[in-house]
TrEMBL record:
InterPro entries: MyTH4_dom, MyTH4_dom_sf, Unconventional_Myosin_ATPase. PANTHER family: MYOSIN VII, XV, MYOSIN XVB. GO terms for cellular component: cytoskeleton. This is MyTH4 domain-containing protein. Gene3D superfamilies: MyTH4 domain. It holds the Pfam family MyTH4.
Length: 166
């Protein structure tokens, strides 16, 4: 039943963001960004959603090409890793719906140095480690697996993020 309602909801979002009013389209795309980041698409809707998003991302003049690309990445990420497990805070939800979906998060390195990493609303730790390793020039997948991230929360907020090498 849940899959049926999720597929129906995704279909309604596609209709919503294809309305001709720019404000409705933008709001619909941002909402679709949230849905694709939280829920993997049903097998029934997946090929249609993927084809639609790919067509828009490859179209040269589509006004929502960038948002479609983000939705496609979220869709693929949620299929690979599962959807986001924790509901965003009220302020994060407002930021996403306002079009601000990333922030810089300092990662403490061994030796006390810090590296500012760009975190998106639906980033997964694996991607953050990959990005960091690419920045360091570590491209071998076996070597990338030697790195991990340790995050410490205080009062509901991340207070320290440390890169670990095993």
């Amino acid at each position: 039943i849940c899959v049926h309602y999720h597929s129906k909801g995704c279909g309604q979002l596609v209709v919503f963001y294809t309305w001709k009013r720019l404000e409705n389209c933008t709001r619909g795309w941002r909402l679709f960004n949230l849905v694709t980041g939280f829920f993997p698409c049903s097998n029934t809707l997946l090929p249609y959603c993927t084809r639609h998003l790919e067509a828009i991302t490859q179209g040269a003049n589509h006004p929502f090409q960038e948002l479609a690309s983000v939705c496609l990445k979220n869709l693929r990420r949620s299929l690979s890793f599962g959807g986001r497990r924790h509901i965003p805070s009220h302020s994060e939800m407002e930021a996403i719906l306002a079009g601000r979906s990333s922030r810089r998060l300092p990662i403490k390195l061994p030796g006390g140095n810090e590296f500012a990493c760009k975190i998106r609303s639906f980033s997964v730790a694996f991607e953050v480690v990959q990005d960091f390793c690419t920045e360091m020039g570590v491209l071998n997948p076996a070597e990338v697996k030697e790195f991990s991230i340790h995050a410490t929360k205080k009062g509901g907020k991340i207070s320290l993020v440390t890169l670990m090498h095993t």
